[in-house]
Amino acid sequence: MREIVYDTYFWQNDMVRLRAWSEADWEWDYYNSFDTLAVRLADCKVELPPTVSHSKEYSEKVSSLSTNNCRTTFAIETLDGIHVGRINILLDDHQNGTFGSGLLIDRDYRGKGYGTSAMKILLKYGFMEKRLNKYSSSALEGNEASIKMHKKLGCEQEGVLKQNIYTNGRYYDEIYFGLTKEDYLKL
Questions:
Q1: 155: which of 38, 101, 128, 176 is 20 to 30 A away, CA to CA?
Q2: Which domain of life is it from (predicted)?
Q3: Distances 78 to 6, 115, 117, 139 between C-alpha atoms, Å
């Protein structure tokens, strides 16, 4: 196979490259399923104990950019090919022109800008290629990394749903963020 030249590749920037999730990525999913705090912050719940078969089934379901519940899942890699995370884009509201995302970075690579860099690629795709008008997302109260990332991306906090999510024995606020294409283009 010829060497791939990434000079003008859309799905990368100066820090990360997005690629299709593959069935072989089940190990990454399995390993990161043991990070209960991160999974709780991302999914607002605790899953049953991880199993190899569940991770393999998940990876098979979302591999090769197949859409699952209007979500397309990508692996996040450094430019050196190190798998550092998973990101998906939620494209379920074409009528209103909105989209969302989900993101999980491996604990060993958090706080280094990989998630923010991957989000920049998805925002560019949503606004500049899919002609969508608004990115919307929420973060669970206490998810400081997600809150910081959204603000860094230019998102505005649009509201708080008080005590909206129940997990870990109590109700948490859900903080909503948004970014319009107009504001994105100003950045």
A1: 38
A2: Bacteria
A3: 13, 11, 10, 25
Mean pLDDT of the chain: 96
The amino acid present at 6, given as its one-letter code, is Y
Quick count: other Cβ atoms within 10 Å of Cβ 37? Answer: 12
Q: What does the pLDDT read at residue 69?
A: 81
pLDDT tens readout for residues 16-54: 999 999 999 999 999 999 999 999 999 899 999 999 999
The residue to which tokens 């809150």 are assigned: 147
For residue 132, the tally of other CB atoms under 10 A from its CB is 21
Give the C-alpha separation, 139 to 116, whole Å.
Answer: 15
pLDDT by residue (tens digit) across 125-152? 999 999 999 999 999 999 999 999 999 9
What confidence score (pLDDT) does residue 25 get?
98
How close are the terminal C-alpha atoms of the chain, in Å?
39
- Tell me the average pLDDT across 98-127: 97
Q: Are 34 and 40 in contact (CB under 8 A)?
A: no
Distances (CA, A) of 10 to 7, 81, 134: 9, 16, 20
In 3D space, the residue among 122, 138, 134, 68 whose CA is nearest the CA of residue 95 turns out to be 134
Give the CA angle between residues 118, 115, 179 to the nearest 5°: 70
Q: 48: how many CB neighbours lie within 10 A of its CB? A: 7
What domains sit in the chain, N to C, each tagged with a CATH number?
Answer: 16-133 (3.40.630.30)
